[in-house]
TrEMBL record, chain A:
<dbReference type="InterPro" id="IPR013325">
    <property type="entry name" value="RNA_pol_sigma_r2"/>
</dbReference>
<dbReference type="InterPro" id="IPR014284">
    <property type="entry name" value="RNA_pol_sigma-70_dom"/>
</dbReference>
<keyword id="KW-0731">Sigma factor</keyword>
<feature type="domain" description="RNA polymerase sigma-70 region 2">
    <location>
        <begin position="40"/>
        <end position="106"/>
    </location>
</feature>
<comment type="similarity">
    <text>Belongs to the sigma-70 factor family. ECF subfamily.</text>
</comment>
<dbReference type="GO" id="GO:0016987">
    <property type="term" value="F:sigma factor activity"/>
</dbReference>
<dbReference type="Pfam" id="PF04542">
    <property type="entry name" value="Sigma70_r2"/>
</dbReference>
<keyword id="KW-0804">Transcription</keyword>
<dbReference type="InterPro" id="IPR013249">
    <property type="entry name" value="RNA_pol_sigma70_r4_t2"/>
</dbReference>
Automatic annotation (TrEMBL), chain B:
<dbReference type="GO" id="GO:0006417">
    <property type="term" value="P:regulation of translation"/>
</dbReference>
<dbReference type="InterPro" id="IPR027383">
    <property type="entry name" value="Znf_put"/>
</dbReference>
<dbReference type="GO" id="GO:0005886">
    <property type="term" value="C:plasma membrane"/>
</dbReference>
<keyword id="KW-1003">Cell membrane</keyword>
<keyword id="KW-0812">Transmembrane</keyword>
<keyword id="KW-0804">Transcription</keyword>
<keyword id="KW-1133">Transmembrane helix</keyword>
<dbReference type="Pfam" id="PF13490">
    <property type="entry name" value="zf-HC2"/>
</dbReference>
<keyword id="KW-0805">Transcription regulation</keyword>
Length: 199, 238
């Protein structure tokens, strides 16, 4: 393992992360190229793990999920279809789904966690966010978020970072049943249009 | 739930804010709605940009662990276009089924018209089902879902026909197994989609003692994950 380089901690994801390169690294990984996969890991792990950690909060569990996600990426890299979305979106979608499934499974086991989460649902800007504050993309995202209505923003943050269902979000924000999903969708559409992705 | 209402779930789906039932319903809808697929993809892209705000490098240990792990895992092959026109998408195999799916009010109602189209896998299933020496056993999978296992010893093949099978969670798939006389579960292929499916199990079924159904990560696993969804024993076949 002498070729392994330690990951410098707190390295921000490069702003101009070359998206095409991630696609190439995925394709090489699909062919069994372990070095390409290591490069993919180095380019995306801080971002992927940061998301997983934000949703799960428990560092040990978050590392487990990050490990599962990267193994899934290795196994299924050939199934990535660039025509359907960016490599980064594919990775983050896999990671988010697994992180949310993990917190929901844990919740199903011990329902008492729910009261803890409900009392602490105010989205805090944790220390991990600070490292990325300088990132251009993070600034763009913050600017786009600032254009949402407060309800759209809060609903989105509770759903995405909190891992709550739209029905739970509705209760948390005192919204009429069925309207949280609309706020989430409207908020995402405004985000998408403000950032200029996916079009 | 009306078409308009289900369409409105695209945002919540893109950020995983649907409960399991809603997710399954929406994925059924996605299979038939290109507009929703495009919208979901663009919203997932937008949601992914959130992660630029929360970077946190995992420990160096994790990197070493993952890179050691992958040495023992074979990447799955790409999904190739096939003559039976299955499409390489995670909801791909739902497309055909979706044509006969109708989503109504509080529950999902599935109608399966006669499956007798010219798809090769179907006729292979029918070949087993209509073999002179066919035996069959039906097992209740709960929540209205059923699976019937057919085997023809002369053909050496088994087929599984499901009804009202709920969709596997997104990112997961059903996988089939044949249990050999030594008690080992041998991979018998994937069962994609939901509802009423009919598939031929891969491998020689003439000596198998049972068939298993499990839920596995997309692409399947080398060994079955526990708990199994069902084990259907040939012994009980009539």
């Amino acid at each position: 393992m002498s070729h392994l380089q330690p990951v410098p901690s707190g390295t921000p994801v490069p702003d101009q992360a070359p998206v095409a390169d991630l696609g190439a690294l995925l394709r090489q990984s699909a062919r069994g190229d372990q070095q390409a996969f290591a490069a993919l890991y180095d380019a995306t792990s801080a971002r992927l793990h940061g998301l997983v950690l934000r949703v799960i909060r428990d560092p040990a569990q978050a590392e487990e999920v990050t490990q599962e996600v990267f193994l899934q990426v290795w196994r299924t890299a050939a199934r990535f279809d660039e025509a359907k979305g960016s490599p980064l979106a594919w990775l983050m979608t896999l990671a988010h789904r697994r992180a949310v499934d993990r917190v929901r499974a844990a919740e199903a086991v011990s329902r008492q966690d729910t009261s803890y989460h409900q009392n602490n649902h105010v989205v805090d800007h944790d220390s991990t966010a600070e490292a990325a504050e300088k990132s251009m993309e993070a600034r763009r995202v913050r600017a786009a978020l600032a254009e949402l209505t407060p309800v759209q923003r809060e609903a989105l943050e509770l759903a995405y970072f909190g891992g709550y269902t739209h029905a739970e979000v509705a209760v948390m924000l005192d919204l009429p049943v069925g309207t949280a999903k609309t706020r989430i969708r409207d908020g995402l559409i405004r985000m998408r249009d403000a950032i200029g992705v996916g079009q | 739930m009306t078409a308009h209402e289900i369409h409105a779930l695209s945002g919540a789906y893109a950020v995983d804010a649907l409960d399991d039932l809603e997710r399954a319903r929406f994925e059924d809808h996605l299979a038939a709605c290109a507009e929703c697929r495009a919208e979901v993809a663009s919203l997932q892209d937008a949601a992914a940009s959130f992660s630029s705000m929360t970077t946190a490098a995992p420990s160096a240990d994790l990197r070493a662990k993952i890179l050691a792990d992958i040495k023992t895992v074979r990447p799955l092959p790409p999904v190739v276009a096939r003559l039976d026109s299955r499409r390489p998408r995670r909801w791909a195999n739902l497309v055909a089924a979706a044509a006969v799916l109708t989503v109504l009010g509080g529950g999902v109602t599935v109608w399966q018209q006669n499956h007798s189209t010219s798809q090769a896998p179907i006729s292979a299933v029918d070949q087993i089902r209509t073999a002179a020496d066919v035996t069959a056993v039906t097992q209740d999978l709960g929540k209205g879902a059923k699976a019937t296992l057919y085997r023809s010893a002369s053909l050496g093949k088994a087929a599984l026909v499901t009804s009202h099978l709920p969709a596997a969670p997104n990112g997961k798939t059903y996988q089939l197994w044949l249990q050999n006389r030594a008690g080992h579960m041998v991979n018998a292929g994937l069962l994609d989609g939901s509802g009423n499916r009919a598939v031929v199990l891969q491998g020689d079924a003439s000596d198998a003692t049972a068939a298993g159904i499990t839920v596995e990560p997309a692409g399947g696993s080398q060994t079955p994950s526990l708990p199994v969804v069902a084990v259907i024993e040939f012994e009980k076949a009539t």
